[in-house]
Amino acid sequence: MSMHYLAALCVTVGTFLVLRLLLKRSRSNGETTTSHGRLPPGSRGLPLLGETLHYLAASSTPGLLPPFFKQRLERYGPIFRTSLAGEDLIVSLDAELNAHVLQQEERAFQIWYPPSFMRVFGADNIAAKLGQLHRHMRTLILRLFGPQGTRLVLLHDVQRSARDELRSWLHLPDVEVRTATSRMIFGVTAKKLMSHDDAAASGGSLWKWFHDWTSGLLSFPLSVPGTTFYKCMQGRKNVMKVLKQQLRERRRRSSSSRNSAAAEREAVDFLDLLIDELNKPDAVMDENTALDLLFAMLFASHETTSMVLTVVLKFLTDNPKALQELTEEHEKLLETRIDPDSDITWEEYKSMKFTSHVIHESLRLANIALVLFRKANQDVHIKGYTIPAGSKIMICPLASHLNTKVYKDPSVFNPWRWKDIPEPAGASKDFMVFGGGLRLCAGADFSKLQMAMFLHCLVTKYRWKAISGGTMVFYPGLQFPDGFHIKLLPKI
Ligand code: HEM
Questions:
Q1: Which positions are annotated as binding heme (predicted)?
Q2: Which residues line ligand 1 (CB under 6 A)?
Q3: Among 97, 219, 271, 456, which residue is least crowded by beta carbons within 10 Å?
């Protein structure tokens, strides 16, 4: 083969490759039709990086769609393609598609989360489990945090902790609400999950390690000493060490009590339930799955609710009319009681209509689970597009929560709007803060109860003054960059 021929071949092949690349790029800026059908429009952005920088850089405030989503919604419509952190994704801001995807769990779609998520939550976390095992894990969680447990046990525990916590705030010159409520809720849930006496088991560090871990959740997943993500992974390592020690110690004790033919032991916390599962001859769960579940529960049970509770307090601070109506609702409850200091009953809790509106409105705007992920198990033809089997889907329910056809002036905090909209017991296509389908949040009832109890104790005994902070941003998850600092005062 002559040199000329080789050079000509190289030029031809080179030109062909460049043209292919250019064609592919220009096609990916619009809609693409493949043998599967018409793919949603979109762009894959830069090689490797995709559109990650834009996704991470663009911040927003509650009540507004973050610019990443807004710009693409305007350019492509509510269903589009992108590429984030090395993953090609189909993004859905469409209420019907979102609901369809969640309702089709383990049929046309199934849960999938990006590798960085699986790293921080553990390879055996509940999102990695399907079918019977997933159902089984949910049943265990709901034994503690489902409607029965919430009504009979948690109602009282939660009230007690809210009362004690608020009493302690009175003596402080400045309370950062997010940190204080996170620590308070951790106190209740760590006890329910593993009868955890924080001071005894880890020198008081368990909550702090969790805090390190959570601070890095939204950081770039580069685990090199000095980075936030590294601190996050160290936090997880420390927490897992304590959990493993406690699980092994408890298993050892439970097997020796069985050997000594001790009387039938009653499960007293979630760790006991897990150990009973592991000890079964036909156990479906292994130790790693149990540990990752315990870890996820410790996280989910305090980080989520404390964030929304901080949002509630911020909205109430800025909306005196809403605060007044909320206070009146709780004062009325006190008037009907013989002993104003007695525990709130389940019936009283269920009668807190305006409180429930305030919580739903805050959840709608705060939208702490900004995106959910799934993958398609088969080709799905919907809304004129094809979602090919194997596609990864990123659902953003926020767009439905800001839909002007359902929520008038959606960016405004208006708890009264819920007087005319039925509050969804589970999920609806227009209100998906707790997800939906088989994976509907297992702590939704508990979370709402906890917020209502806290508000009851707060507005019946105290008032507060905002000192500093309180600015909320999405970047890309909801945060209070300067915290929210208040001074608690006795009620006049
Ligand atoms: C305001 C508070 C909360 C919000 C907004 C929230 C949101 C969510 C969402 C959106 C999902 C679905 C994830 C998906 O489908 O991919 C979920 C699942 C879950 N949540 Fe929550 N959550 C909250 C509080 C809690 C609490 C307090 C607990 C525990 C006590 C909890 C435990 C769980 C569990 C275990 C799952 C996984 C369910 C499954 O895979 O079957 N959550 N949560």
A1: 441
A2: 111, 126, 138, 141, 145, 297, 300-301, 304-305, 308, 368-369, 372, 433-435, 439, 441-443, 446-447
A3: 219
Q: Whole-number mean pLDDT of the chain?
A: 86
Does 417 or 231 have the greater pLDDT score? 417
CA dihedral 344, 348, 353, 357 (to 10 degrees): 30
Domain CATH for 276: 1.10.630.10
Ligand 1 centroid vs 448 CA: distance in angstroms? 12
Q: How far is it, in rounded angstroms, from Cα 61 to Cα 65?
A: 8
Paired with 374 in beta bridges are: 111, 393
Coil/strand/helix, residue 139: helix
Residue whose structure tokens are 């779609």: 109
- Is residue 441 part of an annotated ligand binding site? yes
Measuring CA to CA, how many Å separate 321 from each of 325, 361, 372, 413, 420? 6, 15, 34, 11, 18
From CA 476, how far away is CA 368, in angstroms rounded?
10
Q: What's the whole-number mean pLDDT along residues 434-446?
A: 94
What's the total number of domains in the chain? 1
Q: Could you list the residue range(s) of the whole structural domain that residue 218 is in?
A: 27-490
Q: What ligand 1 atom has the least distance to the C-alpha of 293? A: 35
- What's the N-to-C CA distance of the chain in angstroms? 97
Q: Backbone phi, then psi, for 78, in 5-degree steps?
A: -75, -5
Separation of 439 CA from ligand 1 center, angstroms? 8
Neighbours of 197 (CB within 10 A): 12
pLDDT for 434: 95
